[in-house]
Amino acid sequence: QVQLVESGGGLVQAGGSLRLSCAASGRTFSSYAMGWFRQAPGKDREFVAAISRSGSDTYYADSVKGRFTISRDNAENTVYLQMNSLKPEDTAVYYCAADRSVLITNKPDYWGQGTQVTVSS
């Protein structure tokens, strides 16, 4: 069992930055691929970024490539999402996810409770 707790969301102006954190419980954090997803009002949840178990490989949605950076600290059981040059269309609830697979899938094994990110124009 893995519990994920996100933090770092908030209200920011367009062009600003936020750093999301996701703290995981348990001693097997490095066994999971990790990812971030988001869901805007009235829309389906969508993939944002993913990182491999070791942190050597990262993947991004085209909409955030070049602006967002995912990273992880396996010693601290934490995954991060650095979000720069934020746009109003980035407004959503952001969810952390953990997957036993080598790469994150669309049906991860565990989800966090989500953290709200609001970008004002």
Features:
121 residues, mainly beta, 7-stranded mixed sheet, 4-stranded antiparallel sheet, globular
In words, what does this structure look like?
With 121 residues, the chain is an all-beta fold. The protein is built from no helices and 11 strands. It has strands spanning 4-7, 10-13, 18-24, 33-39, 46-51, 58-60, 68-73, 78-83, 92-99, 110-111, 115-120. The strands form 2 sheets. Strands 2, 4, 5, 6, 9, 10 and 11 form a 7-stranded mixed sheet that branches. Strands 1-3-8-7 form a 4-stranded antiparallel sheet, with no helix packed on it. It is globular. The chain starts with a strand and ends with a strand. The relative contact order is 0.32.
Contiguous low-pLDDT stretches (5 residues minimum) are none
How far the N terminus sits from the C terminus, by CA atoms, comes to: 40 Å
Range of strand content: over 45%
Characterize the largest beta sheet: strand count, sense, and whether it forms a barrel.
7 strands, mixed
Average pLDDT level: 96
Compute the gyration radius: what is it? 13 Å
Number of strands: 11
- Please give the count of helices: 0
The helix fraction, in percent, is under 10%
Order of H and E elements? EEEEEEEEEEE
